[in-house]
Write a structure and sequence with these properties.
Elements: E1 4-7, E2 12-15, E3 23-28, H1 39-57, E4 61-66, H2 73-82, H3 86-103, H4 119-131, E5 135-138, E6 141-144, E7 181-186, E8 201-203, H5 205-216, E9 221-227, H6 231-246, E10 251-257, E11 260-262, E12 265-266, H7 277-283, H8 286-294, E13 302-304, H9 306-330, H10 340-358, H11 363-381, H12 388-405, H13 417-432, H14 436-448, E14 451-456, E15 459-464
Parallel strand pairs: 3-4, 3-9, 9-10, 11-13
Antiparallel strand pairs: 1-2, 5-6, 6-7, 7-8, 11-12, 14-15
Enzyme class: ligase
Organism: Paenibacillus lutrae
Keywords: Aminoacyl-tRNA synthetase, ATP-binding, Cytoplasm, Ligase, Metal-binding, Nucleotide-binding, Protein biosynthesis, Zinc
Amino acid sequence: MTLRMFNTMTREKEVFEPLESGKVKMYVCGPTVYNYIHIGNGRPAIFFDVVRRYLTYIGYEVNYVVNFTDVDDKMIRKAEETGETVQELADRFIAAYKEDMETLRIEPASINPRVTDNMEVIITFINSLVQQGFAYEKGGDVYFRTSRFKDYGKLSHQNLDELQYGIRIEVDERKENPQDFVLWKAAKPGEIFWSSTWGNGRPGWHIECSALVHKYLGATIDIHGGGVDLTFPHHECEIAQTEVLTGKPMAKYWLHNEFLNIDNEKMSKSLGNGVLIREVVKQVRPEALRFFMLSSHYRNPLNFSEDGLTQATNGLDRIQNSVTNLKHRLTIAQEDVLDDQVEKRVKDIEAQFIAKMDDDFNTPDAITAVFDLVSEANRVLQQDRVSAPTLRFLMGRFRAFDSVLGILAEEREELLDEEIDKLIGERNEARRAKDWTRADEIRDLLTEKGIYLEDTPQGIRWRRK
């Protein structure tokens, strides 16, 4: 079987052939950490987690990088509103982001580089562009000369003269060309800044990813991903500023997931219809939200609704119940031989699962294969005698599929409400005694058991994952 993926650059499904045998270098644009993430952010996070999981499943070693934009205009404005420093704001929301990712069973990236930890690398990258005539300074700002990159627009398939400017491209009379974009922004009075050849300032949005990709993964990577809204201008600008320096393709394959809509309306801050992930998982299990996101192909728009979540929950319950019944039956099953007919049917199902994932990560059809496994498991469970090896084989296939999709609830020994309250009380006593080590130990224990604590004006409130 051969993995094929839709390459935004060529607008075709292409056979995946990594740059280095057995290894994959993959970069996905991460969040600007000035707020909690919403379900629109959740779609690419879940999808590219599945891409990384599947590449691992079929035998690749994946170096997966997701950046944190921890300084930009929105960060500065939000910090002014909250009275925090930009770093304090970033620290707070990076911690929240990681908690939300863990809740959604998204495996940690190989590394999450922060922009502010890589300022020297970014400044050096910009300086190289200036020295070679690809960028110019005006009034402390530095701009990229799009006219020097003849292929500008090749990812979004737009003609340079007809480009529609993205949200972050601003009209500026200091630009030589309206399409030129900022690489370095001069600091305004009172703003956070770093020193550079061009004066105090901070990097523009696009340059950070080019510099970080180059530092952590090299001149050319296998896969660069993100939401479809990043195709232009962000990824287009990344390509331009990277490829003029290296003379090589920035990425071999470009993957973009489509938008998430809310009740058939595009999610946007202006409409006020953004829904936070941490609010959704108070209403439904995190695995149900994952299931919902994967029930539609990543290149199709997805409509978020209560009905959709209900259907996802019901579908997930069918799978979970089958697994639970297999575990229960195993406690009374006798050791015997593996049923070869069951083995054959299940291997056929597994082949279908792999074939669907190989076809541009077709998660909806892969989930259909999981339901075929449910049907086979339920058929086996109706028999009077089932061998333990047969049950273990079925359970193993559920675990294998779940290692890619991540939709089954993790097994854990649940705490009783009384035990939770007792531990919270003990933690409060430890905090009053300034025994921070013990307080952290208790919080970690509760988190491990799927219990999350929230500070409210009325005191500590807890909820189950």
